[in-house]
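# nightly structure sweep
# worker-07 picked up a monomer target from the shared queue
# config: single-sequence mode, recycle default, output format = structure tokens
# input follows
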Amino acid sequence: MCAWTCEEILRATEGVPGHGWSGTPLFSAICTDTRDILPGALFVPLRGERFDGHEFVHQALDSGAAASLWARDEVPAGLPTDRLIRVHDGLQAYQMLGRENLLRLGVSVLAITGSVGKTTTKDLLASLLRSRFRVHCTHMNYNNEVGVPRTLLELQRHHELVVLEMAMRGSGQIRELARLAPARVGIITHIGESHLEFLGSLEAIADAKAELLEEMPASGLAILPRHSPFFQRMAARARGPVLTFSNEGPADWTALRIHSLGLEGSDIEIRHPEGTSMVRFGLPGRHNVSNLLAALAAAREFGLTCEELLEPLANFRPSGLRTEVLRLPDGTTLLNDSYNAAPSSMRGALELLSGAPGRRVAILGDMLELGAAEEDFHREIGEAVARTGVAVLVAVGDRSRILARAARLAGVPTVHWAPEREEAWSLVRTEVCAGDAVLIKASRGIGLDVIAQRLRGVQER
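# output follows
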């Protein structure tokens, strides 16, 4: 993290030094967690539903912070006002510091949003660009109003590009993130059912995602899924040129043929601006081909040739908990896709399970934020489980009771339902046998990644 002058801090945050200001002229870093305080840092107290960072300002100063922002009206007795910078809102100040760091370093932004596929596309794009550029990217799930400025504040002088995920739960949120980091390239991966609970329709979801395009400069490149029924709706929001990708039909970047290699990936014939190429892609699943095409389209805009882009794809591996294929010592194949779930990504994961060797076991949890249609979506996935040839289903969570009932009616031989994770784990330990192919997938809030970790741990002991 780069050092900051006091003047830079005050300008970015529109802050006012406290009475008798005696703070340092130079800050070593910006921190929001007292456990990560560096000597000479500026502490930023953020507020959440169950915490308020202002309660830890004294601890931050005692731990070595040179000063702290302060967004409360009153300063409690004993807190040194000469080491405080008053701001209107702590989160807003933090966001402006992230934006200022991006601008002062001159790093170009590639931004990715969409209902599903954001992280895989981000991982692919960052991997491709690192062959020529010094790239930083979103870590873990730092893709919201706190995570995006955090990522921007991690930028250092050697970085040339930053690949950002941008997530949302309602309209206006992508716009706010896009204003913090105006993108040279903006990608929308897919419009799906996630967030229906908050936005009410797929059209509203498409509009919310397209806020990214409206905040890009006129020279910015929008990269959009041509096969989406909302393509024209989103493309109309772009201020600059539009490039398309599709694994289902004509586009600037098109998968003409996809030959599945099962869990080993796919052989893909890709048509691109330089012609046609065959590529072996190490990440399994047809849905991941769409993510690949979006990443390739973006990376080529930075001068990489198609030959440079396609060569390393056979060995690509995504972030953990996303299409993660693990072969356990007893011959069990674990498909750990437990990071998140929506109907479209659940269907893709089941398609992948259908090509796996061994008896098929599905451990599936609730899909959240689907609104009034959630029962229909869970019922549909239960029926899809049966079509996949699953022998054993363990459904987890209140909403997944409907999924379990639909799977049972559709003919899945063994169906269990558990209200929560711990009861599900007892069922999993009983049902999973050596040589099985096991899929684990649910929305993040259900926490099925813990079952994946335990299953892996049991086998590796």
